[in-house]
Amino acid sequence: MSQKSKAKRDTRKKQQGKRPFLRLNQREQVQNHAVLVDDQDQVVAAIGLQNRQWLLAIGGQTMGSAENPVPMLAMLQHMANVQEAEGRKVTLETSEAMKQIVASLAEADGVTAEEYIGKLVAEFDQAKEAAEAEEVDGEEATDVAVAEEVPADEDSKADKA
């Protein structure tokens, strides 16, 4: 080892500058890629990327995570459609990276990005309609059961009198 090696090493370290180090339990920041904003510029829901994991946050709470953000984006678009149908003005802002992900998946299906997201949003609408139909069927069955019980009660009262 030469006598000047320590001096060379010290000058090299000074030129490199300080490296930041991650503290224990410190998380990487979430990078927003899709944000649903209301007319008062408040975030209603968002999709972000943290440590290669996509997160869905609604109302400030993390609701879920996934490796593919596109279904979550369709959910945000569905939420925007529902909000607008109720008379609230909301906008869905997406990043260029999110647009590229959707475009690549849409290209694989042979459709445009808007058609691809529209197809996924339609699945949410169909699920909502199916749930409403089940709810109506359940209420009708309950109404029929209640209607059948009422005459039975009246007959028992007539027998007692």
UniProtKB/TrEMBL annotation:
User: What top-level branch of life does the organism fall under?
Assistant: Bacteria
UniProt region (Disordered), positions on chain: 1-25, 130-161
Q: Where is the composition biased (Basic residues)?
A: 1-21
Bias class Acidic residues marks the residues at 132-142
Name of the protein this chain belongs to = Uncharacterized protein
Q: Which organism is it from?
A: Stenotrophomonas ginsengisoli
